[in-house]
From TrEMBL:
Family under the similarity heading: Belongs to the enoyl-CoA hydratase/isomerase family.
InterPro entries: ClpP/crotonase-like_dom_sf, Enoyl-CoA_hyd/isom_CS, Enoyl-CoA_hydra/iso, Enoyl-CoA_hydra_C
Assigned keywords, A-Z: Lyase
One Pfam family here: ECH_1
Top-rank lineage group of the source organism: Bacteria
Name of the protein in its database record: Enoyl-CoA hydratase-related protein
Species name: Eubacterium limosum
Species lineage: Bacteria, Bacillati, Bacillota, Clostridia, Eubacteriales
UniProt cross-references to Gene3D superfamilies, sorted A to Z: 2-enoyl-CoA Hydratase, Chain A, domain 1, Lyase 2-enoyl-coa Hydratase, Chain A, domain 2
Length: 258
């Protein structure tokens, strides 16, 4: 991989977008690498949480690569958009929990990458924006879809139409960021949250993620039906037996993977 770093420790995989000279801008090669890497992570039972971050002090990801797009044709623009959709949808739906560690600028495609993660933790120097209409384009890596789902239609429209850059506190206030932490504590906070999630019944966490993701895209009745199927499926696990028995026996549960 030319543009990504990846390491795994204590069941946590860390993906680092690594193009610091271009503030980690996402070009097609990086998107292809991300899609491939996420496909590999998806199959790994030894990884329970994935943290996505950017290389260097300044940026998480400063957007799609403008230098690549500047001479692009409509067909090439669409292809890049579809490639990002594939990579981000894969990331959004892997069985592992994903946390975006937003360590600086999360602009355009960067904000969109963070929104494809389950949880966003922002360093206090993080800045979010969807600046595409300054460039004569629209958010194309899912921003017109995921931003309104996260912060509501009105706020999403304001952010996209004005291109206003918001700081980490404002992102937290509107529900775009889950938490704001001093930048030196960003990784330790993400790892601590990862550790907490890993200590739970991990198949149940995966089922809950699937129920939430699927439910957000269907009507309430269909979502609830899907939830009931997954709830039933959870009853087939040893963790359900152990978790409930431990509660009734007033002891700590020894939860495993299933
Ligand atoms: N694409 C390509 N290169 C980029 C980039 C991007 N999105 N963002 C930054 N860079 C490059 C700069 O061109 C510069 O390269 P050189 O050193 O070779 O000149 C380098 O990164 C450092 O950037 P700056 O000198 O601009 O750094 P700065 O501190 O003055 O400004 C910034 C930082 C405010 C983030 C500024 O770089 C910026 O505004 N970047 C573009 C942000 C943007 O418009 N993003 C949206 C892209 S479109 C998109 O993402 C579409 C979509 O929905 C998928």
């Amino acid at each position: 991989m030319n543009n990504l770093l990846f390491n795994v420790e204590n069941e946590v995989g860390v993906i680092t977008i690594n193009r610091p000279k271009a503030l980690n801008a996402l070009n097609s090669e990086t998107l292809s690498e991300l899609k491939q890497l996420v496909g590999e992570i998806e199959k790994r039972k030894d990884i329970k949480v994935v943290i996505v971050t950017g290389s260097g002090e300044k940026a998480f990801v400063a957007g799609a690569d403008i230098a690549e797009m500047v001479n692009g044709t409509p067909v090439e623009g669409r292809q890049m958009c579809l490639l990002a959709h594939e990579a981000f949808a894969k990331l959004e739906n892997i069985p592992q929990v994903t946390i975006a560690a937003v360590n600086g600028y999360a602009l355009g495609g960067g904000c969109e990458l963070s929104m494809a993660c389950d949880i966003r933790i922002a360093a206090d120097n993080a800045k979010f924006a969807q600046p595409e209409v300054n460039l004569g384009i629209i958010p194309g890596f899912g921003g017109t879809q995921r931003l309104p789902r996260l912060v509501g239609k009105g706020r999403a429209k304001e952010l996209i139409f004005t291109t206003d850059q918001i700081d980490a506190q404002e992102a937290y206030r509107i529900g775009l960021a889950n938490k704001v932490v001093p930048k030196d504590e960003l990784m330790s906070t993400c790892l601590k949250m990862a550790e907490k999630i890993i200590s739970k019944a991990s198949y149940a966490v995966t089922l809950a993620k699937s129920a939430i993701n699927t439910g957000m895209d269907v009507d309430l009745a269909s979502g609830c039906r899907f939830e009931s199927d997954l709830f039933g499926l959870a009853f087939s696990t040893n963790d359900k037996k152990e978790g409930m028995s431990a509660f009734l026996e007033k002891r700590k549960a020894d939860l495993k993977d299933f």
